[in-house]
## 1
Amino acid sequence: MNLGALLPSAIDGLLLGFVYGLAAMGLTLIFGVTRVVNLAHGQMIAMGMFVVLAVASGAGLNPYVGVLLAAVVGLAAGVVIYVVAVDRVINAPELTTLLATFAVNLIIIGTATTLLTTSPRAVDVDMGALRSGGVTVLGTHLVAVVIAVAAAGALYAFLFRTRLGKSIRAVAADRAAAELMGINSRRMLALAFGLGTALAMTAGALLATLFSFNVLSGGTYETKSFVIVVLGGLGNPTGALIGGLIIGLLEGVTAVVIPVSWVPVIEYAVFVLILLVRPRGLLGSRQ
Amino acid sequence: MLRLRGRSRPFLPVLLLIVAVVAAVPLVTGNPSMREELFFMLLLVTLATSVNVITGYTGYVSFGHIVFFGLGGYGAFWLMQALGVHFLVAAVLGVIPAVLVAAVVGAAVLRLRGAYFALATLGILEATKAFMTNFDPAGGAVGLSFNFSIYAQYGGAKSAAELAYVFMALVALAAIAASYLVRHAKFGLALMTIREDQDAAVVLGIDPARTKVAAFVISAVFPALAGAAFFFKNGIIEPGSAFDLTRSIESLVMVVLGGVGTVAGPVIGAAVYEWLRGFLITSPALASFQLTIAGVLLLVVVLFATSGLVGVLRARFPAVREWLE
Amino acid sequence: MRGMRIMAAAAAAVLVVAACGSGTSSGPKTLKIGFTASQTGAQELTSKRQVEGIKLWADQVTKAGGIKLKDGTVLTPQLVSYDDESKTDRVQALYTKLINDDKVDFLLSPYSSGLIKAAAVVGEQNGKIMVTAGGADDATMEQGFTSIYQVYTPASQYLTGAIDLMLAMDPSIKKIAIVNEKDAFSTGVAAAAKPYAASKGLQIVVDEGYDTGTTDFGPIVNKIAAAAPDAILGGGHFQDGQTFAKAIFDKQVKAKFIALLVAPPEPTFGDIGAAANDIVGPSQWEASVAYDAKAAVAANISWYGPAVADFTAAYNAAFGSAPSYHSAGGYAAGLVLQKAIEDAGSIDPAAVRAALDKQDLLTLFGRIRFSTDAKTHGKQTAHQMVYVQWQAAADGSLSTKVVWPEAGRTAPIVPRQ
């Protein structure tokens, strides 16, 4: 055990937590509005990575153009997934919606594995580094945080400042009442699915600028998103962002005092414990 | 103790007979490849039938159900490797950790409803997997493997594989029989009452907590036995293959494909699911897109045939209703 | 059914490398050799090298007219292989299929110890002889197998040699970090390295493992940086090794000596540029090794197969790149099997097994001899490791130099800057 690693590790974890939080916001937004746990979430994160790969290595453009593109593609993909796979069973029991999104997951994995193979990929982004004392913070991580914060801010502005956003919140709060107020709830549900997917793909795109990846990389980040979402309260986007920071920090700090490979054990144990003790999450949700 | 509601047709014996006859084919013909394939199919039948008890009958989506398969596998494997216990004894003892987890953790998480329960089982699976990956007495990430001489007491590796196969077939048959008995006993009615309305169940004098835990424990026993057989045959066990989330979700897919909450559904679902993938893969044009096609078919079933294959057959052909439940 | 699905996935990927397909109906018999390749997944790159080595061997044997036995029979090798996606489940199903459906005569191995362990169980269950390349795990070869033969130097020797090299470079080194992938091979390497390091008076200040597929080395590198060791030893396979080296470089960790498994000897390791500089790697083989017929005479054993230079040239011509040790290992596995069949005079498993047990050769890959002790039967006992280091030339270009053992080195070791 060496506490010299505490500061750099905590900083690294916290920075990464913003990106985790962004991905989890997507998952929790979808759940909050549609009551669907989206099992295609991880795969959409992975697809975000490949958008960056295509833009950077394929088209030779700046990888951050890929991040923006990933958000746009995500919005469209999410709406399509909702219309095709979810809309028809939106009021069915959990098992049905879980498997509907799992089917989408299979379709995307199958197609992506065939077309892109599972070979490891990397996008080489060099944004320099800030160095001070024993702490090195890579530029790519800082840029990722800035973009993640901007994306989260844009989501909030949309949900709280625009008419469309308020309609989505109304549907999340009470679908029947919202419809009585003349809101087309199906359209809002589809839009929420699109926004959630856009967040997942944006987070994936940012992760691609930090680490190597492959077609199947989404799985790890999906389970991490589940943990974060439960921590912050299912359906609570602010909770997800804060949950992301907590998990990031927890990873960074615990890695200093215990072997790094034990960190996930702590993470999942905390997850189960929170579900048992405070199923509504540390921050609680509004219901 | 088991008071079964009146049945006129011998549905259960017929279903068991069909499974048993199919399972006997590779033993009679002595075809090892076919034995391997059917071993896997019987394993899936067991997993799907078991998870159906808690998910289909009781309405609790157990996402990480494969954890019992892994626990049973690890328990039995360790007994055989470290203490030289005979496979049959080890397999039975290997059920203990699975039952303990189902009873203790189950009692806690079964208080949760809906998506919360599903996510909790996922958490239990991932936590167990992460723990076993780091737990050095069980080999950590590398897992455990047999010294090959261990198969000598079974008359060599080949007879050991056959023993594992016969055992697997018996476990599958037992799981099906248990599923049938649960459904037709008063206990099954209690489960389904809980599924439909937990508060009403209490009014009817059902203790939901105890009933649910009992169902969870039953659904944990057979995957644990299957895990013991599977890893005994393979000769190695590692966290990745013992606690595989995808396989866990796939067993739910099979349940839905065949028909949620039916006895024959998971059996038919498991058989069709694996057969279909086999078919896709042997067709050169479709092979590389097999997961995609599996996904499309699953989506079609989920969206348009909610009652699964059993439901469709029963609706289409009233004559089969008494033979298919 | 799973088996069917797997065999079929593979049907598309069957490589049939037998050259003489036409007009030889009454001619040579085919010798079916089965193995799986990781065409996708974690082991993709190194597996590809190994398969290329195997293919080159089969091609050359075919061109030379096949394997000629004493009784006049001529055997033409036919390779049957499937994609195992780097997964142990698939390896077991595919080897079952190779043995029972394709009815192969002999087995070669997949790449990486974890996959070999899975394949070996199936091979042994069915009594098939398997020559393994690409797997160095000690534990696999201590399970009482009778038909598995290991070409690689066992894992336990990978880093013990690196420690000797390190101390020869700078005897003042005291604090070391050992960080390894948590798979069969790397765990075995680390398990052997730790007591050896302790016996040399070294202090292990960081002792960590990471899961296969890890991409974020931040937490581990932070710990290493805080402990400030003189040397870092470990790694696992290609992808993670490269990422790890890059993370060490990005975080500017100072260490005089870094030795990583598997990745450095692979030519594309240099893609990470300056991050590769001065990194040392244990290698089963390098193109500059000095094995030849003369050395065989000196050691009083027989020389078998092509000369190192001929192999390297042929490989370059066939695949357009220099062979790595994984390529040479694959080729050597073919050679070993060929020699055993020739010595046995038949493909009868018992005869070939006896021939393998007796084998003691010098080849382009080095000396090969298998343990005949019942507990470690088939384990490699004669092959030696070499160590390479990425070094920058005056113009800044990077290349690997053999730095150990001293007798065969092409450049002296330099401390990491």
Note: The domain at 3-117+134-277 of chain A is CATH 1.10.3470 (ABC transporter involved in vitamin B12 uptake, BtuC).
## 2
Amino acid sequence: MKAFKGFVIKEFYHIFRDYRTMLILFGIPIAQVILFGYIITTEINEAGVAVLDNSKDAVTREIQNQMLASGFFKITAQLSSETEIESIFRKGIAKEVIVFGANFEENLRKGEGSDLQIVADASDANVANLLVSYTTAIVQNYNRQQMADMQIPMQIEPRVRMYYNPELKGVYFFVPGIMSVILMLISAMMTSVSIAREKEMGNMEILLVSPLRPIQIIIGKLMPYFLLSFVNAVSVISLGWLVFDVPVNGSIVLLLAESMLFITLALSLGLLISSVAASQQVAMFISMLGLMLPTILLSGFIYPTENMPLWLELISYAMPPKYYIIIAKDIMLKGVGLRYLWPETLVLLGMTLFFLIVASKKFKIRLS
Amino acid sequence: MTAENIIEVENLTKIYGQFYANDHLNFSVKKGEIFGFLGANGAGKTTAIRILCGLSKPSGGKITVAGFNVYNQTEQIKRNIGYMSQKFSLYDDLTVKENIEFYGGIYGLNNKTLRQKTSDLLQKLDLTDKQNFLIKDIPLGWKQRLAFSIAIIHDPQIVFLDEPTGGVDPITRRHFWDLIYEAAFSGITIFVTTHYMDEAEYCDRVSIMVDGKIIALDSPDNLKNTYQVDTMNEVFLKLARQKIN
Amino acid sequence: MNNRSIEIVELNKRYGTIQAIKNINLTIQTGELFGLVGPDGAGKTTLIRILTTLLLADSGKASVNKLDVVKNYKQLREQIGYMPGRFSLYMDLSVEENLAFFATIFGTSIQENYDLIKPIYSQIEAFKTRKAGALSGGMKQKLALSCALIHRPKVLFLDEPTTGVDAVSRVEFWEMLKELKNTGITILVSTPYMDEAELCDRVALMQNGEILSIESPDELKNNFPHDLWYIKAENQYKLLQILRTWEKTYSAHGFGQSIHFVSQDSQMKEDEIRQFLESKTCKIQRIMRIGASIEDCFMELMNQPKKA
């Protein structure tokens, strides 16, 4: 046990003494969150919105006013018929069209429910998503005010339609996606590189000859990166929350627990990589191509997997980050619990066990 | 410069901050001589060689190599010297022939000369039937001989050898020295740096550097007589230890 | 025999088409300072890695301290110290941190075995807060040796510990090994330098995966089967060319600026050599009979056809 402790301490020395490692560990996550955050948020300042108001009453005017007042929107066109929507999008005049049904206020008062449609140009899925969610929030806010005044019962239920990308499940908030990328990067790449370094420098020979058991070497290598990755997960969530108001609607404990599961998975992948990579360079290369790119491209982080050709979509089911992103997104945004997320959690758990066992089996007790 | 001195060094000094890496070195090397440049790790050998090869400027001193000064005629110097290091200059993933052609090309040999040189060289080293072998697949001894031959492919006046024969068996090592003697005999000056004293025994004259200064310069025999010992190793130990104490 | 520390029987190891070691048989006594001497590619590292349980042999048996290197590898690993060719220190850790690390992974502490490493470690202790990467070659070597000894191993394996370090450090290193030997530890050390063979109790000369001979350095030199002549002339290159074309030459090898010469004729007298060389206008400076060096022996053994 003392030997193991000494081993872990040594790992921390390596990490804290190499400013490049420190930069990757803590600089990249912060940079990524801020970068993604600002790219997305800047685009919805004063986004163009067109209005097709079939009712033109006090309520529809009030909703429009509240949208303008929010600062996110500016109304760029008033339409007179639904046929104009397509050309408005084509010309780029507006990214979103709000359609109020006829007799809006009247229906509302009667309690029959009124017809509000939000139509978005989803060719830029990120922006569309955000616009829709902002609009929805404004409408619901208006609803709540009305309820409080007890003038009318809450009845407005916006119906959302997406143009060009009707499903639009992939990209919602960026934080879950970034977390998956960062945890993958830190956990898998850093572990595989650090083990490869021991091999490259010849230190592994001595470690193997020592009474340290292989499992102690493995866990000793994984533990520091587990802790650091966890710190990273927490800091990404807090950064998202503090700087960009990304909420955690569900249980934070569950979110962190799922993150730990995903970290373990990534670590075992790193271990697996290190068993085939003889040098740091190779380890880095495999991590980049084998893990980073699929994580970014095939996990649904940026490109919704549903729109991919079938064979790619099938591959995407084998990507661990896909499940983690679903889980994180659902916990953070929908606020759901394990009752709904057990299938994804089970998949992650299965994958983790599988890779951990394969990696431990492949870890050599001798050279070559 | 006298006609027969190919390298002349007067008061070569190189200072890094407060540190004298080379402290007023004085020596000359004759044409066709095998000159050993010895010293412990960190004694300042590498610094001096970089200057002689025109890769770094001295802080002071009058230094000519093959008749050119090291301050502003470095291009001419580079054309007149060859260089071989123990850490091989050959490309492991190219074949024997490709390596020869590559280095010949660097020194601007025309195609006809290069073809001729390549076939001469392959024949001389007995590598003709192995010319398409990758460098990593041929034994260390052959690699060393090939590396040396390539270092002199452009007929330089001086060739610098950096610990050329580490790690090979005694017979292979002698084959290598045969090549060196042959080159020296044909008039090429050989400048050997090493900290292996048995390599020093093969040199016509050796200089021994300690802490940036040359503290001895003579033929191996004279040095052994002076210090009353049997081997260059003991000469070196006496000098280096005397310095420490 | 008294106490066998290392026993190797019929050991073979092949990498692809290269036979790294061929049919090695070797017994090393407890407390012996034993040298494996040979050039790169002789099989020294492979042999040491098999003995340190890092590699599996293709066939044959080997045991260290009566422990089989395959079956009992776990127990064995606790009893051996190993210093690989590359010093295998952590360059970003300080001298003391390196030592402490190797102590803890072997389940001991610096204090516990300080007496054993003191003669070596005290030489670098003044720099104990310095990063290992900033040490000179000789100091790295001392630190690596301290690390290999910190758990008081019964057998110490050193793979080319003196390669790449300067002459002064090499001598100091061998002095340390002599001192260590007095503590009763068995030491197996490999080296490409023939002159270091002199410093071992016994040496195995190795070439192309085979052992050419196993003897003490003195036996080895005394068993040199020929009269050996030292010849020095004004021009070594010319002298060598002349001797090589002489039909009476058995062998002529350059040794620095002189030649070591063996005649086909075991009755050859100095005058005959002198006359021949002078007839070729060679200016002789010195001719004398000398005893063989390890290097002469190695070359002689390389040239001999393999004994059955």
Note: The beta strands of chain B are 5-16, 19-30, 34-39, 60-65, 68-69, 81-85, 158-162, 189-194, 205-210, 213-218.
